[in-house]
């Protein structure tokens, strides 16, 4: 088998996750979407924003990044970290 410079691409199949949130969190997410629309002039649904919000949160959590890097049991040790996950959440 050839030794290619580019390794095998990670699984990019999106995962759909359905969650239930409190009324207060739902309102906060809707307010965020409204502020996003006001700031950037583009309307995005809460369901479209949430995967990026979660990604930013996880990328900014230093303890989580350290645990994944060290390969601690139960923290992604069985699979390589992906560059970007595409999780979709229902807008409930």
Automatic annotation (TrEMBL):
Annotated region described as Disordered, given as residue ranges: 69-92
Pfam families linked to this entry: DUF2274
Name recorded for this polypeptide: DUF2274 domain-containing protein
Organism whose genome encodes this protein: Mesorhizobium montanum
Lineage of origin: Bacteria, Pseudomonadati, Pseudomonadota, Alphaproteobacteria, Hyphomicrobiales
């Amino acid at each position: 088998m050839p030794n290619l410079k580019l390794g095998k691409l990670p699984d990019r199949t999106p995962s759909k996750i359905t969650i239930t949130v409190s009324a207060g969190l739902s309102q906060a997410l809707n307010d965020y979407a409204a502020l996003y629309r006001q700031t950037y002039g583009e309307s995005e649904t809460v369901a479209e924003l949430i995967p990026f919000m979660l990604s930013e949160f996880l990328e900014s959590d230093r303890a989580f990044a350290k645990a994944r890097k060290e390969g601690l049991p139960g923290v992604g040790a069985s699979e390589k970290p992906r560059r970007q996950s595409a999780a979709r959440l229902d807008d409930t």
